[in-house]
Amino acid sequence: MAPDFFSFLGLPRKLSIDAADLEQRYRALSRQYHPDYFYNAPPAERRLSLERSSYLNDAYRTLRNPIARVEYLLRLEGFSAAAPKQASLSPALLEDVFALNEQLDEVRKLKAGGAAPEHWRPRLERARQPIETKRAAHERQVQELTTRWDASVDAGAGDTERREVLTALRERVLERNYINNLLAGIQRELEG
């Protein structure tokens, strides 16, 4: 079984990663595992180099993206980023979702009735603002939790503390995905 992406690249299982260091590690391993260097090798070695090169590319692609890195860490630690059955959105976010859906319905009615964009576009822009504000707050929370996770790794924190941070990270990621879907819905209406 292959090591996890972090250990494959020689990194601790932390969320703050120096991008230049990650790039350097990736390039060094690319030179070591690239299939071109195994052209004349026996078939088993060629196949192994392809597998390692593919795994390396997946690891690099995942770890260079901060949110993909969080989602990967959650999976590694047994905290799937998929919504658990008992999970629910915060009441404040639910209120925003309800208000936004009402506004989107009103805008759709205006558009269906032939209203000019200057009558419905400002409503969408106003509706976007609280959702954008919520997204920015979630990004800050994810960053704070990233810092907490890294500190817990450095301190060798116990399972309880680590689980607390991972649970909070999973909740922020779930809400973040929901918020991004809301914003995408607004964008579709603006473009449609």
Keywords:
mainly alpha, Helix Hairpins, 192 residues
Description of the molecule:
By secondary structure, the protein is mainly alpha-helical. Helix 4 crosses helix 7 and helix 5 packs parallel to helix 7. The chain folds into two domains: 5-64, DnaJ domain (Helix Hairpins, Orthogonal Bundle), CATH 1.10.287.110; 91-191. The protein has helices at 5-8, 19-33, 43-63, 66-76, 91-112, 117-155, 159-191. The chain is extended.
Percent in strands: under 5%
Number of beta-strand segments: 0
| Silhouette | extended
Low-confidence blocks of residues: none
Q: Return the string of H and E elements.
A: HHHHHHH
Give the class from helix and strand content and strand pairing: mainly alpha
The description of the largest β-sheet is: none
End-to-end separation: 48 Å
| Gyration radius, rounded | 22 Å
**What is the helix tally?**
7
Q: Which percent bin holds the helix content? A: over 70%
Topology record:
Elements: H1 5-8, H2 19-33, H3 43-63, H4 66-76, H5 91-112, H6 117-155, H7 159-191
Helix pairs in contact: 2-3, 4-7, 5-6, 5-7, 6-7
Summarize the structure.
The chain is mostly helical and 192 residues long. 76% of the residues lie in helices and 0% in strands.
